[in-house]
């Protein structure tokens, strides 16, 4: 009974998030462009964060997140996005990478060509 | 009514109207039947005794069963008195629901914290302890508990190892994120004392 009440709240949250826009579909290893709405003072604009999805957490939960990693000016940058955040407009999949594991944390230790994933066609 | 009795259900995250991700505690708040109304004439003060969580009559003393019978409500596991506003009319047998928090911004929530058993001072009082390396011999010890001959005793209330947790605690000024009358649920921002399933008392914020 206890978890039922919370399940209901979580289901509502997912329903509310997927009402206007579809749930983002992508997989681990995909190169994606995340369109994030950013408020600067009064103005609102869309910022794109492009990188590789290296982790997804929370599975089907309403609190699910995903981690995108990119190399920006030679420095590795990772951002964790809530999957159902109202600030995420869409997630575009640029190319799909071949992976053998669910979490690609090993990419953190690799640079250059080695950090590239083979494309799945 | 000043407050309600509830049960901690658990925690999750919701998005508020600004799109902010808020960590909330879900509390099953009420419905609480009014078991007894205390009046200034008979009791010297005014308050309403609320009940929560049904109980089989066979598991209660007869005196208590009769007490609930008198008000015409089902026997409850827990009762607690709450003050009510002078312009409110409260009858025995009334059901107080989570709707009393409609339009209320902040609440105080009190409950019994999780018991942690016998704990040392580092865990219990966040003392630093001694050095772990460089030949440290008082790694997680209390250290000095006072001087020697003067005053010749240990100060009362000196913090030492002992039982941690399982005490009444109140968290003040928690923001109400949602009131859900259809499920008798209250969502407040942040954490509250106790384990899941534990009883809590929710009051409208006293300060502020």
Order of helices and strands of chain A: HEEEEE
Question: Can you tell me the CATH class of chain A?
Answer: Mainly Beta
Q: What is the 3D shape of chain B?
A: globular
Largest sheet of chain A: 5 strands, antiparallel
Strand content of chain A: 35-45%
What does this protein look like?
The relative contact order of chain A is 0.22. Chain A has one helix spanning 2-20, and strands at 31-40, 43-57, 65-72, 75-82, 88-95. Chain A has one helix and five strands. In chain A, strand 1 and strand 2 form a beta hairpin. A five-stranded antiparallel β-sheet of chain A has the order 4-3-2-1-5, with no helix packed on it. Chain A has 121 residues and is an alpha+beta fold. Chain A has a single domain (2-110), classed as SH3 type barrels (Roll), CATH 2.30.30.790. The model of chain A has no long low-confidence stretch (mean pLDDT 85). With 208 residues, chain B is mainly beta. Chain B folds into two domains: 3-116 and 167-204, Translation factors (Elongation Factor Tu (Ef-tu), domain 3, Beta Barrel), CATH 2.40.30.10; 117-165, no CATH class. Chain B contains three helices and twelve strands. In chain B, the strands form three sheets. Chain B has a six-stranded antiparallel β-barrel. In chain B, strand 1 and strand 2 (21-29) form a beta hairpin. The relative contact order of chain B is 0.26. At the A-B interface, helix 1 of A face strand 1 and strand 2 of B.
